[in-house]
């Protein structure tokens, strides 16, 4: 059934709002139509809640192993914090990846998939360490130490940025090198391990976000780059997979904005001067690609062409010789945002942290509040979306996935393990944006996928 047809026909049935008054007596059929209208207005564009947890549990090798980890403190049930989500679908098989950085002691696995096993609640599945438990032994640097975010690429590979840090919210110990890991998802085999050289890092570097740029046009997926945010070192690391090398990129726009370092989220207040965190890769349409980015302590959006980043000669000796090729929005959002994602139609999705909303921005239009569209608002479900991805579902439709984690409560020490704190939500992108300024209009696109007469007017130069 087409819900939007129902809304259109119902409008004609009842008349316009100005034609109705508070004394109108409605028949049962008219009342049904009103309920359908409310459904259209309030329910159609909502994200669907797929999974939720008060605290996460795992599929352990045995009950004996679980009990031993609990006794030793290697597993503390309330401490693991889900942060990011991504999804792989192929030939009817689906894997949902969930990351759990080792923010606190007692996080036994940092990269997992969702299992079919449940622990009481149907919506609270157990998590399975990926690729298996042997990769998650703390202090074993040939494994995986602490993962904030991942990305599934179009070639069926999982890209993992491992910070090598544990107890990040407590005292922060660097026990293994920062590294990029790439897995073949179909086989769960490691295909690449790249340890990031010290010269590309700062003494306080923390690497929470990775964005992947596949440049191949022949489908062999060998020409790939990864862009990694350094949230505390205020930089970006570029990894050239074909040549197995990396370099550091600097820009003033990677720094926190002091006025935006104060957070007031759902009654919790704290200061956090985090730099570049959110990365969103624009679609690769055969020409250049934009990387959108912002600091967590910021209310502006920035972008740079990836051709600038991929040219290492632009950033020799720690200098940026092309600073004017980095751009920042002239206008501001109403609050900070964390994760972002860009779809194939160049629409950027983001979560306004203060207002608990999912919003979108058509990047072909100026970055102004008038061009932001609120798609969903929920003061419970949408608290702090720390992970956001777009993946093609089993039905062939592109779907937006978001993981929300109430991170503000971890910052203030007020997390309540008796409440639901972690959620994974999803909805088809076309359903979310239908009828809004973010909906793709095929007639406005040229053959290159750019709107006719496009000019780079979105950001100040």
TrEMBL record:
Similarity comment: family membership: Belongs to the major royal jelly protein family.
Compartments, record wording: Secreted
Keyword match Coiled coil: no
Domain of life of the native organism: Eukaryota
Protein name: Bee-milk protein
Main location: secreted
GO cellular component: extracellular region
Key words of the record: Glycoprotein, Secreted
Organism: Timema monikensis
Matching InterPro entries: 6-blade_b-propeller_TolB-like (IPR011042), MRJP/yellow-related (IPR017996)
């Amino acid at each position: 059934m087409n819900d939007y047809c129902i809304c259109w026909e119902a409008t004609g049935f009842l008349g316009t709002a100005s034609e109705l008054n508070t004394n109108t007596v409605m028949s049962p059929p008219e009342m049904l139509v009103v309920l359908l209208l409310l459904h259209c207005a309030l329910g159609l564009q909502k994200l669907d809640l797929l999974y939720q947890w008060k605290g996460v549990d795992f599929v352990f090798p045995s009950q004996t192993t679980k009990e031993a980890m609990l006794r030793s403190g290697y597993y503390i049930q309330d401490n693991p914090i889900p942060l990011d989500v991504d999804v792989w679908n192929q030939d009817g098989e689906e894997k949902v990846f969930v990351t759990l950085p080792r923010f606190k002691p007692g996080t036994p696995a940092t990269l997992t998939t969702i299992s079919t096993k449940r622990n009481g609640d149907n919506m609270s599945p157990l998590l399975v360490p990926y690729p298996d438990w042997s990769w998650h032994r703390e202090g074993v640097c040939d494994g995986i130490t602490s993962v904030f975010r991942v990305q599934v690429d179009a070639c069926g590979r999982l890209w993992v940025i491992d910070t090598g840090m544990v107890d990040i919210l407590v005292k922060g110990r660097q026990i293994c090198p920062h590294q990029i890991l790439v897995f073949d998802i179909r086989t769960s085999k490691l295909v690449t391990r790249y340890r990031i050289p010290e010269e590309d890092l700062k003494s306080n570097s923390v690497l929470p976000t990775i964005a992947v740029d596949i440049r191949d046009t022949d489908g062999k997926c060998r020409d790939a780059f990864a862009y990694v945010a350094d949230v505390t070192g205020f930089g970006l690391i570029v990894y050239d997979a074909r040549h197995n090398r990396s370099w550091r990129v600097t820009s003033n726009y990677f720094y926190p904005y002091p006025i935006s370092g104060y957070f007031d989220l759902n009654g919790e207040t704290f200061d956090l001067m985090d730099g570049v965190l959110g990365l969103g890769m624009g679609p690769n349409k055969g020409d250049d690609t934009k990387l959108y980015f912002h600091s967590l302590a910021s209310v502006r959006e920035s972008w740079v062409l990836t051709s600038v980043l991929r040219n290492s000669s632009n950033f020799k000796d720690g200098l940026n010789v092309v600073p004017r090729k980095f751009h920042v929005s002239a206008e501001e959002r109403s609050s900070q945002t964390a994760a972002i994602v860009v779809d194939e139609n160049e629409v950027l999705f983001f979560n306004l942290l203060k207002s608990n909303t999912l919003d979108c921005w058509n990047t072909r239009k100026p970055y102004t509040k008038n061009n932001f569209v609120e798609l969903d608002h929920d003061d419970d479900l949408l608290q702090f979306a720390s992970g956001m991805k777009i993946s093609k579902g089993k039905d062939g439709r592109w779907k937006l996935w978001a993981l929300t984690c109430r991170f503000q409560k971890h910052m203030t020490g007020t997390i309540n393990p008796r409440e639901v704190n972690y959620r994974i939500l999803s909805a088809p992108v076309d359903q979310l944006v239908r009828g809004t300024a973010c909906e793709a209009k095929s007639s406005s696109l040229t053959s290159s996928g750019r709107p006719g007469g496009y000019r780079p007017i979105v950001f100040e130069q």
